[in-house]
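Is 4'-deoxy-4'-aminopyridoxal-5'-phosphate placement plausible here? Inputs below.
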Amino acid sequence: MPALQLSDAVARIKPSATIAAATKAAELKAQGVSVLSFTLGEPDFDTPAHICEAATQAMAEGHTHYTPAGGTVELKEAICRAYARDYGLEYTPANVVCSNGAKHSIHNVLAALCGPGDEVVIPTPYWVSYADLVELTGAKAVLVETTEASGWVLAPEQLREAVTPATKLVMLNSPTNPTGAVYPVETLKALGEVIVEKDLWCLTDEIYEKLIYPGYEFAPFAGFGDEVKARTIVVSGVSKAYAMTGWRMGWAISPDPALAKAMTKLQSQETSCPSSVTQKATIAALDGPQDCVAEMLSAFTARRTFVLEKLAGLPDVTYAEPGGAFYAFFNVAAHFGKPLGSSGRSVENATDFCTQLLEDAQIALVTGDAFGAPGYVRMSYATDLETLGAGFEKLGAFFARE
Ligand code: PMP
Ligand code: GLU
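Reply from A.M.:
I modeled the complex. Tokens:
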């Protein structure tokens, strides 16, 4: 066997921390340990029946072949219809590229636009994959810190200060993973003004657009006028809103069809096309009845209320209330250096905290270190109330040692 020397690009990146934490919890479960895992951000609901039926029908009708590389025109038209219906945003199929999940769409956008010498501004805390996907292209991720006190929102002046002549793209994500922050409409508008003023591209990851809690409002970034729309690449997909994580379907909507064409070219060499059956299922999701989305949101709303109640009862943790998505992101730094859990060991950081919580209490969370937020941990509450209740009980006992 030749000596293994990995490429620079692969050597540069880390494994996805969310997937690594979920895998570790699953391995322990397979060994018979009863782990409560709050790691993965994926709805626990089954995909709604009418979507599955559309897939079955697609297979029966022979839609089991390659499709055009960026997805069928029929699917792209369904996506355009959904944006016109939901947000009044007009696009044509030439703007749309469909891929194997929004993660793949983000990769395509970055690979098509960025390379060595370019800078990409990312507010922290950020979803684990952003910085690595940027670094994979050879571009530099410029991390700009937001704080719990600000509600985890990037201020327009922070963006203005972070921009250099090398800045190519800004990545926004509202509702945000891992914090659940929903950017106020006024802030988005002001960020749009900076993006226009500095003439930058903006990748807006709107995968949690349908998971918005009472009192919060989702505003699509491309909706802030023609000048913003002309610089905005919208990324979204069906994973979260329709409980379709395993189907793998996401899309990027580019204002410039030439950018969509470039991504399609890339994809024609990478994956040929997204799954033909998934494409049919996605049309059913977007065109079909939307009450399934409302039903899942109402379950998530009840879980969020429960989680916020329980978080308020934990000693010395701080957090900002999530307005969307299904994550609680809380600071446990006050517990560092103190005895914790059944072992009574102390920890020095959030990564050690998660390791010890798993070992002592069999609770799996994701460390904030993976999201660029030391001292914090992320709990996904895309799981049933009973499991959440059991989790908080164990978490309470883990802290009770002090
Ligand atoms: N963006 C964010 C912020 C996410 O949390 C996720 C979750 N996986 C994705 C993109 C990608 O979703 P998917 O690839 O399943 O469409
Ligand atoms: N986005 C989800 C999460 O953050 C799924 C896992 C992943 O793709 O990283 O947990």
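Short version: The longest helix spans residues 291-312.
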